[in-house]
Design a protein that fits this description.
The structure holds two protein chains of two kinds. Chain A is an alpha/beta fold. Chain A contains twelve helices and 14 strands. In chain A, β6, α7 and β7 form a beta-alpha-beta unit. Chain B folds into two domains: 311 residues, Thiamin diphosphate (ThDP)-binding fold, Pyr/PP domains (Rossmann fold, 3-Layer(aba) Sandwich); 47 residues, no CATH class. Chain B starts with 12 loop residues before the first strand and ends in a 26-residue tail after the last helix. Classes of the chains: A alpha/beta, B alpha/beta.
Amino acid sequence: MANLTLVQAINLALIQEMEKDDRVLLLGEDIGLNGGVFRATEGLFQRFGADRVVDTPLAESGIMGTAIGLAMGGLRPIPEIQFEGFMGPAFDQLTNQCARTNTRTRGGLTCPLTLRVPVGGGIHAPELHSDSPEAIYTHTPGLKIVMPSSPYDAKGLLISAIRDPNPVIFFEPKRIYRAFREEVPEDEYTVPIGEARVVCEGEELTMVSWGATVIQCMNAIEASGKNIELIDLRTINPFDMDTVAKSVNKTGRCVIVHEAPKTCGLGAEIAAGIMEHCFLQLEAPVQRVCGFDTIMPYYKLELDYLPDAERIGKAIHETLVY
Amino acid sequence: MPVNIAYETKIEHISILDEHGNFDAGMGEGLIPNDDLVAMYKHMMTCRHLDEIAFKLQRSGRMGTYPENRGQEVPSLAAAYVLEKKDWLVTCYRENAGLFWRGLPMEKVLLHWMGDERGNHIDECNVTPLAIAIGSQMLHATGLAWSSKYKKDGAIACTFFGDGATSEGDFHEAANFAANLDLPVVFVCQNNGWAISTPTKLECSAPTVAQRGIAYGMDCVQVDGNDMFAMVKVVRDAVKNARDNNRPTFIEALTYRLGDHTTADDASRYRDVEELEMWKKRDPMIRIRNYLEKLGLWSQEQEDEHLKVAAQTVSEVVKRAEGIDAPSATDFFDSMYTDMPKQLKLQRQTMRTSSLGQDPSQIPVQAPASEGVVQ
């Protein structure tokens, strides 16, 4: 066991999978000698060499498109897009090509790659360095999407993603890259894709979140003093509706928290799923505490945009007294 | 301060057998054995016949939109002829002749245009399915070449695209990656003068498209794309450069589509008849046939005989394409992922119900819950 931050856990998972499987190689901007702008690939260039940790030209579509070719060629590439705001240029290759490879060839070609992308706000970053676009890619059939909220899950989910025969987007919530440490086993283990984690059990209310806002939810729950069940989705697509439905059928109340804009955010899909699976057990309307239907503001106002314990606390109170 | 020349270059244009029958023996002798050239000519006849039949299938409502290949058979066939089995041919959608030479069953291309994804399931040879979004495939070829270099399996990738595709950002990113990362890729641009109705001069205002490769530090050449000898020569040189040196090459092949862009297009809206008539005289099949006849390797009798063979072959291909079992209504769920997620399984099972049908326990007793459930 080692006491690691989330970014260290990612680094460890990459090392272990690269040692285990020669087919795994990394490509991206500044990931080599520099170790990545967040240091997620620190030391890997020195350890595995320039053939397996490849600094590419500055071109996201190029990174994504060549990663597709590498995967079709039988390798397990791990492309990195430096920030989620730079996924735009790669959008066509990711959604129209990568996501469709398996089905448009009826299983003839697969695209087993793991796209690593730092995501979300809260680190006082410049424009287009703080967005939460997970719902955009969830609306693209063919992709799997995960987002860990702890070092333990980061390592286990990343290993699952690398070994998955489908394309997986591994979103890394940059706000909690170094926010806290956790015991992470040295031995390899996996966290299954598609399974949520019940962070704490409770009877009065269900809360659903993922990524960095899980931490805000924990703070709000503690402040409320209520008996609340918190579900960390961990996998955004395909998300674990069973765990959500089971919990909401028990509590009859639900608050969903995410950083992304409210309209057509994943919270809307979860709320609709709750209507389908828990309608007869509901005691209160499902509430959403989200980002707004605005752009992510520059950092002077980013904390006004991001869900915090106070806003979440209000939703808890309103839902409980309804 | 003196003005110095920082860089100077030239673009070569290669022609060996021109439209008037002139043959450059110095470059062309021994390039393609006679038997091979006869086989290639026969193959082109079959492909051209398939093209005619495919057009008729569309017109009679038996197939969806189809892009005629007529007139552009040479570049992809030359490449397929040069490539080794382990190499990758990564095409766009007007390269039937090369794909079939590699061993792609003809009915797969028909199936694709008949709206059936099974036409894209390719086990027979290293080719990728037709790429419909312009320019998307060049990066895949670059990645495939990269995977071969990484695995040290000695394979290279050859990719095809049109003049319009060189306006796409993905072309430039592919060229830049291939050149800067030393990847064994052969880029073949089929410059047929038109991107649907947009003339090449709106895609590229430089005197040649070939010189786009110069900016990426790769070898570039322009070639008569209706000249089988010249095409084989430049592809062979480029493949050697890729295989031996891990260096990409950019080839601009000048050719022409004698048909419309697709069956949904009417080229007479934007192309002059005179231009079309000029290119009809440059039809690559005419010059190969004349060349073979001059050498006594081909005759009208053989032409008539092979036309029958081609008709028979194509007739069987169409039978196979039309005779395939209808796809199952749930097929589009089944390969969305290699392992079907639970929620998708539920959608598949209840595809004929409302979303509430996905959880029958939520439906009031008077409503029918189980209708339309697919097992």
